[in-house]
Amino acid sequence: MRRMAFLELRNISKSYGKNRVLDKVSLTAEKSEFLVILGASGEGKSTILNIISGVIRPDEGEVVIDGRVVDDSNKTYVPPELRDIGYVFQNYALYPHMSAFDNIAFPLKMRKLPEEEIKKRVREVAEMLRISHVLDHKPSQLSGGQQQRVAVARAIVKQPKLLLMDEPFSNIDPALRASVRWEIKTLVKQVGITTVMATHDQEEAMSLADKILILHKGKIIQTGTPEEIYNRPVNTYVADFVGGMNILPANILIPQIESIAELKSLSVENIGYIGFRAEHTRLDDQGIKAE
Ligand SMILES: Nc1ncnc2c1ncn2[C@@H]1O[C@H](COP(=O)(O)OP(=O)(O)OP(=O)(O)O)[C@@H](O)[C@H]1O
Q1: Closest Cα to atom 9 of ligand 1
Q2: Residue 93: left (phi > 0), alpha (psi -120 to 50), or beta?
Q3: What is the ipTM, given to two decimal places?
Q4: Within a 13 Å sphere around the CA of 32, how many CA atoms are in the beta-carbon half?
Q5: Domains of the chain by range and CATH?
Q6: What's the gap in Å between 42 CA and the centre of ligand 1?
Q7: Residue limits of the ABC transporter domain (predicted)?
Q8: At what angle do helices 100-110 and 115-128 cross, to 10 degrees?
C-alpha cells in the first residue's frame, strides 16, 4: 500500500464566479514538516489554508488529514471544529474583551476540560512563548509581538494535529520580525507540529520552510527546499520572485561570457535565459561594457 502523507491536497480546484483561483492544486506535508506556501497577493494562499481548515469547500478535489478524507468536494465533509487544527490569522483575531489568559484558554474551555488542566496547559504554553507576565492583560494592552504570541499560544494550546498560519508576521515591526520568526520556528519544531504557513515574503519563506511551494496563477509551479528553489528555479518567474535573480536572454549574454569555463559547454540554442545572482558576480579586471 502507498504510504500516505500526513496532509494531502489532491487536485483541488476553486473558483469564485469566473475567477478560477485554484486549478488542480496538489500538495503533501509529512508529519512535523514546516510547509510554506509562497505567492504574491491574491494568488490564493488564504483560500488553500481555508480549504484545509474546512471554512471553504473546494469545487473539486480531496483533502486528507492524517489518513482521513475530510473533504471530497462531494458528500464527505468534516466541519472545521472536528478537524483538530490550530489557526493563526494575519490580524490574530483575538477576543478584545478577554485577557490573554482567557484568549488562550478559550479552545480548552470549549472542550470543557477541567479548570486545573486548563490553567496548567495555559501556563505551559505561555512559558514557552514568554508571555507569562502579561496573561492578565487585554489584547489592547499588548505589543504587536505579544499579541502574535497569544494568537500562536491559542492555536497550539489544544495540541492540534495541524497548525495553519496566514501571514503571521506581517503585523510585526520589521526590526523584530527576524527574531520572532526564529522563536516561532524553534517552538513549532520543539512541539513537532505539522505546519502550513502562507506568506508573500520570500525571505520569510526561505528562513522558515522545510519545503516551499510557489503558488502562481492557480497552480503550484515549484516545490522544493529553500536551497532548491533558490538555486534551481524552474522558470524566470520563480527566479525573479525568490531572491531577485538577474535574468538576461542567453543570446545576448553568451558572446560576452565565453571566457567563463563553466558556461562554455552550454549550447545557446538550448537555453532561453541565463540567471545569476548578485552574490555570484564580481567585476573582472578588464570589465565588460554595459548599460
Ligand atoms: N469570497 C470570495 N469571493 C470572491 N472572490 C474571492 C473571495 N475570496 C477570495 N477571493 C478572490 O480570490 C483570489 C485569492 O484570494 P486569497 O485571499 O486566497 O489570496 P491570497 O494569496 O491569500 O492573497 P493575500 O496575500 O492578499 O491575502 C483573490 O483574487 C480574491 O479577490
Answers
A1: 47
A2: left
A3: 0.95
A4: 6
A5: 7-236 (3.40.50.300), 245-280 (no CATH)
A6: 5
A7: 7-242
A8: 130
**In a 3-state reduction of DSSP, which class is residue 196?**
strand
CA of 168 to the centre of ligand 1 (A): 17
Tell me which of 36, 46, 48 to substitute to probe ligand 1's pocket, judged by most ligand atoms within 8 Å of the beta carbon.
46
* Residue 219 burial class via C-beta count within 10 angstroms: exposed 0-12, middle 13-18, buried 19 and up: middle
pLDDT tens string, the chain, 291 residues long: the values are: 556 789 999 999 999 999 999 999 999 999 999 999 999 999 999 999 999 999 999 999 999 999 999 999 999 999 998 999 999 988 888 999 999 999 999 999 988 989 999 999 999 999 988 899 999 999 999 988 889 899 999 999 998 999 999 998 887 888 888 888 888 888 888 889 999 999 999 999 999 999 999 999 999 999 999 999 998 889 888 988 887 777 777 666 655 555 555 555 555 555 677 777 777 777 777 766 655
Atom of ligand 1 nearest to the CA of 200: 25
- Percent helix / strand / coil, the chain, rounded to 5: 40, 25, 35
Contacts of 199 (CB under 8 A, 6+ apart): 36, 37, 38, 45, 167, 169, 170, 205
The rounded Å distance from CA 96 to ligand 1 centre is: 26
How close is the Cα of 139 to the center of ligand 1, in Å?
A: 27
Q: Grid coordinates representing 116? A: 486545573
Dist CA 95 CA 192 (whole Å):
27
Q: Could you tell me if the CB of 245 is within 6 A of ligand 1?
A: no
- 219 Cα–ligand 1 center, Å: 14
